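Weekly modeling sync, notes
Attendees: S.R. (lead), two postdocs, one rotation student

Agenda item 3: backlog of single-chain predictions. S.R. asked that every request posted to the team notebook include the full sequence so nobody has to chase files. The rotation student volunteered to paste the first one in as an example of the format we agreed on. Action items at the bottom.

Example entry:
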Amino acid sequence: MTKSDATKAEEFYQRWGLAALMFGIFMAGMDSSIVMISLPRIQASLGASMVELEWVANGYLLAQTIVLPAAGRLSDIFGCRLFYVLGLSLFVLASALCGTAWNPGALIFFRVIQGMGAGIIMASSLAILSHTFPPAKLGQAMGIWIAGITIAAAAGPTLGGYLTESFGWESIFLVNVPVGIIGVIMTLTILKET
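Predicted structure, as returned to the notebook:
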């Protein structure tokens, strides 16, 4: 293998590795805001109080924030790819459960679990970036990572409104399942453990 072949292989790995990470990053960022537009429908469907609706929205963010430091440290100890797949799988499972929630308490509980998965995704994906990209390219990769989160959070209310109107409030959570499965498959296929 020539030096240019090795460089091409490394660039291919970096490009597709970043693409695999963006599935989780985009979903974790979007779910911070996608639920907001659907709260009136959730209230009507599940009979949720205003306090319960606040927990549906904020329980996710609270759990995500609390989990971040520990997830970062544990992914350093046990492997970033392992923790990223664990976080993404937890996020997908919790999304499916959110979409089938039968009362406000169940939805709050599943949203907290979803937030924990999002925290693991955020911490481990950032660690994977630092292991995958050399210092000269790390800033550009982190810029794409941050842009993905920002765009996803901004797009959340629009997509949430469309899905809620077209398919019901449950769809804002269930849409994560196929996307997350693709992300898990890509991660396991493309990324090496760090």
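Discussion: group reviewed the output briefly. The CA atoms of residues 36 and 188 lie 32 Å apart.
Action items: rotation student to repeat for the remaining queue; S.R. to check formatting next week.
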